[in-house]
Amino acid sequence: MSVEDTSARNGDASGPKITERKVKADGSVQEFPCTLVHRGKGFTVVRFVMTRAGMFPAPVELPAGTISDGWFWEKRPYSLYRMRGPGGAILAHRFDAVGAVDVGEDALTFRDLVLDWWVLADGTVHEEDADELERLRQSGIVTGRDAVRAQKARLEVLSRYRHIIDNVEAEERRLGLWGE
Question: Is 155 part of a structural domain of the chain?
């Protein structure tokens, strides 16, 4: 695949398949069958279509058919999921603290660093799992290095989430991923 390859537009999930592989702090692995939307220099976008309502706990309703575009950067301590309803309207954004993002031919693998932030369509921000991160750090399940990276993600997301979202929207337009 070329360095910059856009495969899916406007909710299309018929492009090349790729597995999103999330390695949790306890070593367990979750896998999600996705469509490769874009693979470019420094970042990759994958698409997951939710087959049923409420597939993931969220502070907003995510109906069946919700489209989640996951943005993963090689050098950023976070990822971003843009959640769109079946009609394409933005429902919410979710940022995750991540480490060790590795994009292969068939899988995108990353280490989940526990912290998550939801940014709702009205701009409300919800932080999740700060207590769990501290508990896992104290028990030694999360290393000091990963805890520092998670806190770096926290600072970047909470201070710049609007800027990050605006830049992703501009990149979507540039790549022709959504809209006309």
Answer: yes
pLDDT of residue 3: 37
DSSP 114-152: EEEEEEETTS-EEEE-HHHHHHHHHTTSS-HHHHHHHHH
- Give residue 9's pLDDT: 57
Per-residue pLDDT at 136 exceeds 60: yes
The H-assigned helical ranges of 54-128 are none
The answer to the question of residue 180 being in a domain is: no
Q: How far apart are CA 44 and CA 59, in angstroms?
A: 26
Q: Is 51 in contact with 112 (CB distance < 8 Å)?
A: no
Tally of structural domains, the chain:
1
Residues 77-122 pLDDT 10s: 999 999 999 889 999 999 999 999 999 999 999 999 999 999 998 9
Instruction: Name the residue type at position 35.
Output: T
Question: Could you give the residue ranges of the DSSP H alpha helices within 13-143?
Answer: 130-138
Residue for token pair 């933005």: 90
Q: What angle do CA 142, 146, 149 make, to 5 degrees?
A: 145
The CATH number of the domain holding residue 122 is: 2.40.380.10
